[in-house]
């Protein structure tokens, strides 16, 4: 059957012209060009949009776009996430958090990771289409990667980025974008959406009204290069404009960003989506417009095509009032549908090569192995006095700390749900044996922040020798009849977003009951709580929602003491002794619920005492300390010492964890510190007193395995820091100051704890003197820089070869700048020549007016495994004559 006949057969629909709304017209490729797959996406989109009414067009400009049955347009939810794995759509391969992926300094690995994410995203879409599922997070337009510059360690969302450096961020962003979108010449695998364009990196509390004031130099030199690369080189099909304003104009209404740079300079031909409710913020937050109609008009005219939100409902009024023209609306909707046509959404079934992808492509053994490789490569060894790798394979290990067995501390945020996540505690027990790994949390993460109740304080019943609680799973609707599944859960700390918790239990709505006993370690005051997505902190019993269904009930000693209708969802309990207390939780899960935790805030001293007693029994103490996505993240209601609204006010360890570390240090045992976080944590005490320090970030589903393998030497660490570890916030400018002066390694002038690009290995490497293909070039000519690297140790390992350029000094010049890196594997004794090409952009600088030039003068080029020391004797010099202006 030819294409025309096929389309006539399967796609014959009733089309109505805007003039004759009641006259049906049988659509064929001859009469309705948008059905002809031989035409370009732009031509098909233009034809389709020409057949829509004003209201139909407006309806398509918001993320929850309804169906238009008369035109055969199905409903579509534009909002999907894939930061480091397909997110919020059930089981998916969970890779290390973005900052950890950046720490690999491995662009080839990044491309493979993005290929897997793209494949799993398309497979999930195909499965959703077959099931008639058009919910959020089931589409093909993914709002990733986050390529904002992590300019200040206090920003809670820095974990989502590729770090502080424009070059590293650009290279990682390009590979991520290419992997997500695939390499088919006609169809996109997914749509990638670099975000948040632009100059967006905190403070979270102010983001809906914040105005970032920046110089033309900093805009072009720091904040825009990664976006330019993702558009010009990565060919991203979409981009997301940010919440903040720049120099008084909201980003989603900025013609400077969306027209001058994006479309004029970078030749972007895709569509622009707003961050969620940022069009509404043009009016409500920034007060840049008088109402939604004016906010919508100014945003659409500037180039924002799609509103994540509902402010664009006012576009019909804006058009009728003459605030924006119908032709301008047409252009936006045409861009959106051109994107859908590029994804193959309106092509005959089976004609898109990605249609064959199915559930069998998700969470495969190969994908899991790649997640483990990524976790291994992401680990950064910050200190090692020779204790690592652990030589005594029969050593007893004490795993101490609040992140040793915390699911969130490996999964990160904006994450997929790992099928079989491996926490550090589980990884150590698999590596060393259950009997030789002792465990005690020692503290909670931070004062006032509850933590999952550890298994040793729970038991299924008074006679059981096991720890944990009995879990019974039931069908949606209640707790009657025989359970669908029964098991013992060591603790209640799960991520069940669209996943089945046990065999035979549906992945959507279900009920679960946990029963057993809580055994307090000491008499005293405790806080108990249960956390799930439906948790409310402001329930008003007089409101209209007073009788909304309960999602959980907590029983203590057979009395209901807490539910999610309580005004305060933390229960103060005073235990007068250490006798067991019956505990029961009944929880009604809905498909979209995410983390589920039975939590407490216990008295601090018994937790510490137990940890010290446990450590005394061990040969080696491994302290797992740091942060979690419950402390740092996007616009969060967290206000405790050191944390505010998702951001941080201090960059050291929370006080309770610092105290734990110092008390462990007094024992005289070998002390290894494993730092889990999405950002820098200043740990000068650990650097001085611990035997080894390993930065693990939020390492993904196989993080525990990678950490354990690194401690034993099965994995030789080679990750590098994608951010500077400063000593204190007092060394930094104000958080709200977006000027780059004295920020990041490129402009910071003082001493630091660990520099950008730093990382140790179990191998040692020796560098020869770098050479250039020619010592002098004219501006615009490409020069090649080569260096010989040799593994001088008996241990095979990876080395990250880094090239830094120090340009001729101007008032705006950076101290130095990364302009090349390669991660190479070298066997024991092996040597290799590594070559980097440097073009005009790599050798260029941005002046105070924001113009980029390659300038005449002497350039210093240093190549090594880290930043060069002042007066690097291996550096080479390049003389450039002439001057070349480069496009923005």
Q: What would you note in describing this structure?
A:
The chain is of the alpha+beta class. It has four domains: 61-67 and 70-360, Alpha-Beta Barrel (TIM Barrel), CATH 3.20.20; 368-444 and 603-762, 3-Layer(aba) Sandwich (Rossmann fold), CATH 3.40.50; 449-601, Jelly Rolls (Sandwich); 763-886, Immunoglobulin-like. Helix content is 24%, strand content 22%. It has 21 helices and 44 strands. Strands 16, 17, 18, 20, 22, 23 and 25 form a seven-stranded antiparallel β-sheet that branches. A six-stranded mixed β-sheet has the order 12-32-31-27-13-14, sandwiched between helices. Strands 15, 19, 21, 24 and 26 form a five-stranded antiparallel β-sheet that branches. A hairpin with a 2-residue loop joins strand 22 (552-556) and strand 23 (559-563). The radius of gyration is 28 Å and the shape is globular. Residues 1-25 and 534-547 have low confidence and may be disordered.
- The radius of gyration computed from the alpha-carbon positions, rounded to a whole number of angstroms, is 28 Å
CATH topology of the largest domain: TIM Barrel
Helix content: 10-25%
CATH class of the largest domain: Alpha Beta
Distance between the termini: 50 Å
Query: In the residues, how many domains can be counted?
Result: 4
Structural category:
alpha+beta
What is the strand content?
Answer: 15-25%
Report the average pLDDT across residues: 93
Which architecture name of the largest domain does CATH use? Alpha-Beta Barrel
Enumerate the spans where pLDDT stays under 50 for 5 or more consecutive residues: 1-25, 534-547
Number of helices: 21
Overall, the morphology is globular
| Main beta-sheet annotation | 7 strands, antiparallel
**Number of distinct beta strands:** 44
CATH superfamily of the largest domain: Glycoside hydrolase, family 3, N-terminal domain
């Amino acid at each position: 059957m030819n294409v025309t006949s096929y389309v006539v057969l399967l796609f014959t629909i009733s089309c109505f012209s805007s003039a004759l709304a009641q006259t049906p017209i049988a659509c064929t490729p001859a009469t309705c060009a948008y059905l002809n797959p031989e035409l370009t996406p732009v031509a098909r989109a233009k034809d389709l949009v020409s057949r829509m009414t004003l209201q139909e067009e407006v309806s398509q400009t918001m993320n929850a776009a309804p169906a238009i049955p008369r035109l055969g347009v199905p409903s579509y939810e534009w909002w999907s996430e894939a930061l480091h794995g397909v997110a919020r759509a059930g089981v998916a391969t969970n890779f290390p958090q973005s900052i950890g992926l950046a720490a690999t300094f491995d662009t080839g690995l990044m491309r493979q990771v993005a290929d897997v994410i793209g494949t799993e995203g398309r497979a999930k879409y195909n499965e959703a289409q077959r099931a008639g599922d058009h919910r959020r997070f089931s589409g093909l337009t993914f709002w990733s990667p986050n390529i904002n510059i992590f300019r200040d360690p206090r920003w809670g969302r820095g974990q989502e980025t590729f770090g502080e450096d424009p070059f590293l961020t650009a290279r990682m962003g390009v590979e991520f974008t290419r992997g997500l979108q695939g390499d088919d010449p006609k169809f996109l695998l997914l749509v990638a959406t670099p975000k948040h364009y632009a100059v967006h990196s905190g403070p979270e509390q102010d983001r809906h009204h914040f105005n970032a004031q920046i110089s033309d130099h900093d805009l072009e030199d720091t904040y825009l290069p990664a976006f330019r690369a993702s558009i010009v080189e990565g060919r991203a099909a979409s981009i997301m404009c940010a919440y903040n304003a720049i120099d008084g104009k909201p980003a989603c209404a900025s013609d400077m960003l969306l027209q001058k740079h994006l479309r004029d300079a970078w030749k972007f031909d895709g569509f622009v989506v707003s961050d969620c409710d940022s069009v509404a913020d043009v009016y409500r937050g920034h007060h840049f417009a008088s109402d939604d109609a004016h906010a919508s008009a100014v945003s659409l005219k500037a180039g924002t095509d799609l509103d994540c939100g509902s402010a664009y409902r006012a576009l019909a009024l804006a058009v009728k009032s003459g605030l924006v023209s119908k032709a301008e609306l047409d252009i936006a909707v045409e861009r959106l549908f051109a994107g859908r046509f590029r994804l193959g959404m309106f092509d005959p079934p089976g004609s898109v090569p990605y249609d064959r992808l199915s559930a069998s492509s998700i969470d495969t053994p190969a994908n899991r192995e790649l997640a483990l490789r990524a976790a291994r490569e992401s680990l950064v060894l910050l200190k090692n006095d020779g204790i690592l790798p652990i030589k005594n394979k029969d050593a007893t290990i004490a795993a101490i700390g609040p992140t040793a067995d915390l699911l969130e501390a490996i999964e990160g945020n904006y994450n997929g749900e790992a099928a079989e996540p491996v926490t550090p505690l589980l990884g150590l027990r698999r590596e060393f044996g259950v009997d030789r790994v002792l465990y005690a949390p020692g503290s909670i993460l931070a004062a006032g922040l509850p933590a999952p109740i550890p298994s040793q304080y729970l038991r299924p019943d008074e006679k059981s020798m096991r720890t944990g609680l009995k879990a019974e799973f039931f069908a949606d609707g209640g707790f009657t009849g025989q359970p669908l599944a029964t098991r013992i859960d060591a603790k209640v700390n799960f991520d069940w977003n669209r996943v089945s918790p046990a065999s035979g239990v549906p992945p959507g709505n279900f009920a679960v009951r946990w029963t057993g006993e809580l055994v307090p370690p000491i008499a005293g005051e405790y806080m108990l709580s249960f956390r799930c997505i439906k948790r409310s902190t402001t329930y008003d019993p007089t409101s209209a929602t007073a009788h909304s269904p309960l999602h959980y009930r907590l029983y203590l000693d057979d009395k209901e003491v807490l539910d999610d209708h309580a005004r305060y969802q933390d229960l103060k309990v005073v235990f007068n002794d250490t006798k067991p207390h019956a505990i029961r939780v009944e929880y009604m899960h809905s498909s979209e619920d995410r983390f589920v935790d039975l939590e407490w805030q216990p008295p601090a001293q018994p937790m510490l005492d137990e940890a010290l007693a446990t450590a005394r029994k061990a040969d080696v103490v491994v302290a797992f300390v740091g942060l979690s996505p419950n402390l740092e993240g996007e616009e969060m209601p967290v206000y405790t010492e050191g944390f505010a609204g998702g951001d941080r006010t201090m960059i050291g360890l929370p006080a309770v964890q610092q105290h734990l570390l110092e008390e462990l240090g007094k024992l005289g045992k070998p002390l290894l510190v494993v730092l889990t976080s999405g950002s820098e944590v200043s740990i000068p005490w650990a650097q001085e007193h611990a035997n080894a320090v390993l930065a693990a970030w939020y390492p993904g589903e196989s993080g525990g395995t990678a950490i354990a393998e690194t401690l034993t030497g099965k994995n030789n660490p080679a990750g590098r820091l994608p951010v500077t570890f400063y000593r204190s916030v007092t060394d930094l400018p104000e958080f709200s100051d977006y000027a780059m002066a004295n920020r990041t390694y490129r402009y910071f002038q003082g001493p630091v704890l660990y520099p950008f690009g730093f990382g140790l290995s179990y191998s040692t490497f020796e560098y020869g003197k770098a050479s250039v293909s020619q010592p002098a070039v004219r501006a615009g000519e490409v020069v090649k820089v080569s260096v010989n690297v040799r593994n001088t140790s008996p241990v095979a390992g990876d080395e990250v070869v880094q090239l830094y350029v120090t340009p001729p000094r101007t008032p705006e010049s950076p101290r130095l700048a990364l302009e090349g890196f390669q991660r190479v594997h070298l066997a024991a004794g092996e040597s290799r020549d590594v070559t980097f090409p440097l073009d005009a952009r790599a050798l260029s600088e941005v002046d105070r007016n924001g113009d980029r030039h390659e300038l005449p003068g002497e350039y210093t080029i240093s190549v090594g495994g880290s930043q060069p020391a002042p007066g690097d004797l291996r550096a080479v010099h390049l003389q450039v004559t002439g001057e070349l202006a480069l496009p923005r």
